Structures are given as C-alpha cells and as structure tokens.
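Researcher: Quick test of sequence recovery. Tokens follow.
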C-alpha cells in the first residue's frame, strides 16, 4: 500500500510525524507523495481540506484518513495517540479498504474580465460575499429567477460542510448520506423594499443554483479555505458534483454522534 501524508505545522503535529513514519515503515507501508492510495492528513479539519484540494484530481483512486492532533474534528476519525492502531488497521485491510463516500459541490465561475471561467470542487462550502458594500445579486434555481438578494453574501455548502460555516449562519445540518446541497444567506437585508426568503434552502441533487451579482470588482469568492481573490464575477453556478470524496472507514463514527460530540457534549 502507498500513502501520502499532508500535515499542518502545529507543534503537536510535528512531534508525532517521526513516530507515524516509523510505524508505517515497520508495517511495509510505502510513502508515495504523487500516487498514493490513501492520503493521511495530520492536524485538523483544515488540514484535511488542504489534503482534499491537493489530491482532488485523483478522487477515484484515493481514500482520505484524518488524524487529529487537537480536539476531535469532523473529518478526523483517529487521535494522535492511536497511530499504531490506525496503521495496523490500514495494514490489515490492505487494498480492500472499507470506505464511505460523501457528496461534493461543483462550482463554475464566470468572470467578466479576460480570464473568464474557473471550475472548482468544494468539500465544505463556497462563499461569495462583498465586504464594505452590500452585495446585490440575482439568485436563480434551475435558470429561473428566484429572488433578488441584498446583504453580506451567500454560502453554498455540502452535507459534510453543513456543520461548518453554514451552521454558524443558521443553516440546517444535513446528514451526509443525503445527495443534496444547501444555500444559506449571510445577513440579508429584509425590509419593505428588499425581500429574500430568509431561510436556508436544501437543493436536490439534479437541481442547480446560479448567482448573478451586480457588476463590481470586489466580490470575495472562496472555496473551502481557498480564497479566489477579488474579481468582477459575472455568474457562479453551483450543483452537486459527479465526483465524491472517499474516506477510509475502518473506524467510522455515526454522523449524529459526531455532531453531538462536537456541539452538545455530555447530556
Ligand atoms: P480551521 O482548520 O481553523 O477550521 C475552522 C474551524 O472550522 C475549526 O474549528 C474546524 O474544526 C471547523 N470545521 C472545518 N470543517 C468543518 C466541518 N465540516 N464541520 C464542522 N466543523 C468544521 O480553518 P480553515 O482551514 O480556514 O478551515 C476552513 C473552514 O473554516 C471553512 O471551510 C469554513 O467552513 C470554516 N469557517 C467558518 C466560519 C464561521 O463559522 N464563521 C468562518 C470562516 C470559515
């Protein structure tokens, strides 16, 4: 088996890396930074997001596994003191590793300037917002005008991303087995003149959402933790991606146990 390691620079992470490498070597698991079968992320959810963006051109060939060096995260099933158990579970399952797949968001952006389009995949979400001035945009569902939006911005999230930024702005939590995505407002302006739905919306798998902002060169677009710069965006189309992310599921916490552990704790 071949694995790649993606890690952050936190002290706790750097401390366990030599032990991880030694453990992999003693189990004859090879490091291959270019063509791995398993990508091991060591750090937090942000590290797993970076690992996804580094290997998102090989989604059919790789499975991801997260080791957390802080609190238990959403994409991390193993803790830093469980390296031996984790490596043994990889060795035991070999190439017939049990896996679980989660939906991703397909993001197509058209810019008004010369470099006129971009295509991205998001694991958590994509955010379009305008800082300093009100964002004004048309929101279309399946090419039909749904509403005129005014406010700070809009977040479009995957089911696994629903517990991240989306949750902070009042969106619902979606079970990741649901093939759907969610559109959630950031501080919409609602008064006698301007009106948006106000609630977040869960969009079905074959539907698509298009956001057409009024022309301005200071829209801030992000895909997970990647900032796409401030550009004049003509339109963005969001739909569920054909690709999915696969996680190693030799150990798998039920989704709502994870949600409870992260947000509620002991009851
Ligand atoms: P990071 O690794 O510090 O992540 C920020 C926090 O979000 C961490 O506590 C992390 O555990 C948590 N997180 C990430 N993905 C999650 C998920 N799917 N479910 C629940 N919690 C999750 O920083 P980063 O590398 O910049 O991470 C980027 C992510 O941070 C973005 O994708 C976005 O979801 C999140 N974020 C949240 C807010 C907010 O809640 N107001 C604002 C900006 C970004």
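Model:
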């Amino acid at each position: 088996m071949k694995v790649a390691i993606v890690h952050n620079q936190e002290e706790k992470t750097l401390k366990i890396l030599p032990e991880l490498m030694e453990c992999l070597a003693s189990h004859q698991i090879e490091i291959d930074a270019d063509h791995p079968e398993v990508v091991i992320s060591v750090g937090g959810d942000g590290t797993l997001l970076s690992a996804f963006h580094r290997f998102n051109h090989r989604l059919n060939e790789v499975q991801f596994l997260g080791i957390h060096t802080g609190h238990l995260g959403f994409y991390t099933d193993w803790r830093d003191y469980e390296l031996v158990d984790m490596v043994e579970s990889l060795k035991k399952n070999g190439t017939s590793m049990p896996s679980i797949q989660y939906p991703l968001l397909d993001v197509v952006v058209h810019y008004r300037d010369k470099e006129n389009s971009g295509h991205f995949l998001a694991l958590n979400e994509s955010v379009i917002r305008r800082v300093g001035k009100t964002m004004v945009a048309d929101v279309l569902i399946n090419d039909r005008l749904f509403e005129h939006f005014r406010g700070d911005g809009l977040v479009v999230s995957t089911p696994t991303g629903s517990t991240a930024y989306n949750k902070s702005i009042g969106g619902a939590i979606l079970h990741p087995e649901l093939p759907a995505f969610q559109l959630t407002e950031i501080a919409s302006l609602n008064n006698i003149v301007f009106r948006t739905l106000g609630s977040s919306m869960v969009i079905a798998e074959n539907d698509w959402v298009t956001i057409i902002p009024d022309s301005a060169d200071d829209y801030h677009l992000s895909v997970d933790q990647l900032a796409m710069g401030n550009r004049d965006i003509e339109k963005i189309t969001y739909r569920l991606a054909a690709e999915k992310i696969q996680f190693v599921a030799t150990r798998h916490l039920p989704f709502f146990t994870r949600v409870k552990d992260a947000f509620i704790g002991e009851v």
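The radius of gyration is 20 Å.
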